[in-house]
Amino acid sequence: MIRIIQSEWQRMWARKKTKVLLFGYLGLLLLVCWFLSVFRISFYDPAHDVPLNSLNTAPFLYRELSFFLVFILVPLLAVDSFNGEARSGALRMALIRPLSRWKVLMAKWALQGMVMTGLMTVTMWTGILFGMWMMPEVDTTTFYKTEVLGPLGAMGYILRYYSLGLLILMTVSGVAQWFSLWMPNAVFSYGGVIAFLIGGIYISPRMEFLLGGSDSIFKQLAPSPETDFIGLALGFVIISLTFSFLVWTRRDFKS
């Protein structure tokens, strides 16, 4: 299984789009850090602004980057891994080997998960260290409607915040995988994902977390949560991966 994941890793980095997206994200990460260091202020939502300090910066770094992650980077990586490889023939070359098809799918899922976890980990620690070095030093801070928190409390909040951010990215990736296996080409797949993310709010207000993920996380982590998207997000992940598995095991990629 490890060799299959290594093979998937090599194919991912062989795609020019992957390099452009990931290195572009790192550049955007540095640009946002510079932006926050200049203004030293961000927002919980359009009605609540907050001064940044050494303890509270990390969640707001994700807030500024969440649109790029949710609407561009994660969907394109998933679409390229599934639909793009099917159209280019790379997937056919992988599946003609004497490998169990489900193992190849598991390797793709594992790699997508590792990439998203890596992105969130890099972003989180960049935010933590950037806040400590560049923002006004404080001993306590607060987040959206929370009590006063010390360094350990702030770290716990940040870990929970980024865990929910990762859950949102997993939801988007799962939906993108399903569209990639259902739609005939990458452009339609990506368009379907974006339509789902934007149109979900018209289906149910509870799907707002897909459109305004960072704001929804603040509301979820409030002492009296103003939203609850965890169960719905997990449901989307399970359903999307189940449908993807069913399509993957039945579709003929070798012809």
From TrEMBL:
Protein's recorded name: ABC-2 type transport system permease protein
Spans traversing the lipid bilayer: 20-41, 61-79, 109-134, 154-175, 187-204, 229-248
Species this chain originates from: Kroppenstedtia guangzhouensis
Highest taxon of the lineage: Bacteria
Keywords associated with the record: Membrane, Transmembrane, Transmembrane helix
Pfam families in the cross-refs: ABC2_membrane_2
Claim: Cell division is one of the keywords in the record: no
